[in-house]
């Protein structure tokens, strides 16, 4: 079967068997047939390796933490089947936790309707999605139901306090604008500015003033781009209302975690935004102060955290849920997303800091829908081929039709 015929079969909704290279077509109709195809593969090899991300520049601090720096490392795993199919993805756990899956049938570990089985969920979720996609010849978003757009909006999440770097010779506001310019040239058309300088690094009013200057400078320089701001809970409510007034004409796209979420403060913020004409979305729920005793429908978040968010969404005080991609768990997003839709909230699963995560999240967006924009990470790890993903002129990923997550891995 040649490449064109293979792609045609995908577009026609057929399922093809991939064994390393695509060798033969085997169109099947539904989940039962997919299950049968997956069960014909047994896990023959489980391999782990470490990868190292590199950002295109040194990435500075947020309001509370030290600089992100030049890039983090992460572990990935590759699963290879007895028929030569393979898949890879992030997988943090040590080898002894996954060794038991050697010899298992892929069909016992992964179900097209449910995702990864409970036993492997916190261990090999990304890897099994990539593997199943490769075996079935489908992108992961198709396994999730193709409910979202095939062009997925993305913002650069790497615009930190580059104005105060390097400490001996800080670059000031132009330092932040230069970071935006670099990401603009890479294809991004939306930037999330870290704010909250007054919390620690430029204490008090001068820090707030710098936040305002940075916001205005980026707005002015990039009139065709979305501007998002994220304060990592570093403001008081009153100070934040002052900031909103000072940037009311900047057409902010979203406001993330302005202060520790409290219902009454969010009510004040909503009222103030209406008064000054700020139409930004309010995004909340990334930070967690406590962990669930054991993973449940919402993964590692506590029931209390989730209840608080839903209560705020019910009052229209939160528009976007920032629940983390991995703390929820990739498979669990299938069940979580309909609940968000029901509550009238959109999602933007938190992805920072490892480079594969925005691509995984883009599949959630294209597969399950209801994702307003994806947090992009302009880092690359040696050995990973990201080239299947291109930006359109509006800064959206054009989702590749390649099987699995569409990310290559080489030596
Ligand atoms: Mg954040």
Radius of gyration: 22 Å
DSSP helix fraction: 25-40%
Please outline the major beta sheet. Answer: 10 strands, mixed
Unreliable spans: 1-28
Q: Name the beta content range.
A: 15-25%
Structural domain tally: 2
Total number of helices: 13
The CATH homologous superfamily of the largest domain is termed: Enolase-like C-terminal domain
State the name of the first-level CATH class of the largest domain. Answer: Alpha Beta
Overall geometry: globular
> Which quaternary structure do these chains form?
single chain
Question: What is the averaged pLDDT score?
Answer: 93
The kinds of small molecule bound in this structure are:
magnesium ion
Total beta strand runs: 20
Structural write-up:
With 411 residues, this protein is of the alpha/beta class. It has two domains: 126 residues, Enolase-like, N-terminal domain (Enolase-like, domain 1, 2-Layer Sandwich); 259 residues, Enolase-like C-terminal domain (TIM Barrel, Alpha-Beta Barrel), CATH 3.20.20. Helices cover 33% and strands 20% of the residues. It is built from 13 helices and 20 strands. Strands 8, 9, 10, 11, 12, 13, 14, 15, 18 and 19 form a ten-stranded mixed β-sheet that branches. Strands 5-4-3-16 form a four-stranded antiparallel β-sheet. A two-stranded antiparallel sheet has the order 1-2. Strand 9, helix 7 and strand 10 form a beta-alpha-beta unit. Helix 6 runs parallel beside helix 7. It is globular and about 65 Å long. The N terminus is likely disordered. The site of magnesium ion has 5 residues, from loops. Magnesium ion binds next to loops.
């Amino acid at each position: 079967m040649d490449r064109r015929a293979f792609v045609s079969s995908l577009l026609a909704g057929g399922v093809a068997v991939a064994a390393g290279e695509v060798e033969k077509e085997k169109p099947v109709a539904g989940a039962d047939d997919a299950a049968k195809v997956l069960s014909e593969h047994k896990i023959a090899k489980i391999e782990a390796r470490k990868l190292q991300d590199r950002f295109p520049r040194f990435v500075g601090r947020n309001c509370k933490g030290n600089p992100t720096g030049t890039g983090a490392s992460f572990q990935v795993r590759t699963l290879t089947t007895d028929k030569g199919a393979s898949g890879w993805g992030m997988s943090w756990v040590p080898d002894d936790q996954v060794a038991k899956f050697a010899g298992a049938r892929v069909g016992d570990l992964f179900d097209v309707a449910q995702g990864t089985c409970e036993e492997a969920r916190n261990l090999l979720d990304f890897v099994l999605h990539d593997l199943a996609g490769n075996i079935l010849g489908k992108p992961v978003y198709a396994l999730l139901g193709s409910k979202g757009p095939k062009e997925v909006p993305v913002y650069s999440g790497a615009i930190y306090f580059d104005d105060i770097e390097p400490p001996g010779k800080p670059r000031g506001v132009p330092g932040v604008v230069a970071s935006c310019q670099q990401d603009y040239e890479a294809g991004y058309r939306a930037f999330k500015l870290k704010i909250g300088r007054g919390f620690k690094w430029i204490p008090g009013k001068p820090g707030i003033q710098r936040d305002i200057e940075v916001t205005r400078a980026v707005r002015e320089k990039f009139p065709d781009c979305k501007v998002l701001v994220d304060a990592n809970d570093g403001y008081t409510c009153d100070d934040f209302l002052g900031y909103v007034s000072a940037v009311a004409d900047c057409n902010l796209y979203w406001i993330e975690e302005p202060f520790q979420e409290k219902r009454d403060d969010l009510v004040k913020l909503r009222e103030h935004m209406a008064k000054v004409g700020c139409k930004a979305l309010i995004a909340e729920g990334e930070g967690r102060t406590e962990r669930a005793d054991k993973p449940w429908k919402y993964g590692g978040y506590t029931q209390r955290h989730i209840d608080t968010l839903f209560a705020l969404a019910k009052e229209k005080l939160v528009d976007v849920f920032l629940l983390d991609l991995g703390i929820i768990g990739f498979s669990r997003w299938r069940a979580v997303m309909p609940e968000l839709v029901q509550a009238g909230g959109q999602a933007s699963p938190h992805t920072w800091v490892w480079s594969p995560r925005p691509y995984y999240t883009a599949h959630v967006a294209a597969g399950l829908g209801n994702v307003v924009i994806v947090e992009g990470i302009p880092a690359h790890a040696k050995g990973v081929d990201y080239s299947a993903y291109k930006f359109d002129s509006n800064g959206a990923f054009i989702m590749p039709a390649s099987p699995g997550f569409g990310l290559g891995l080489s030596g």
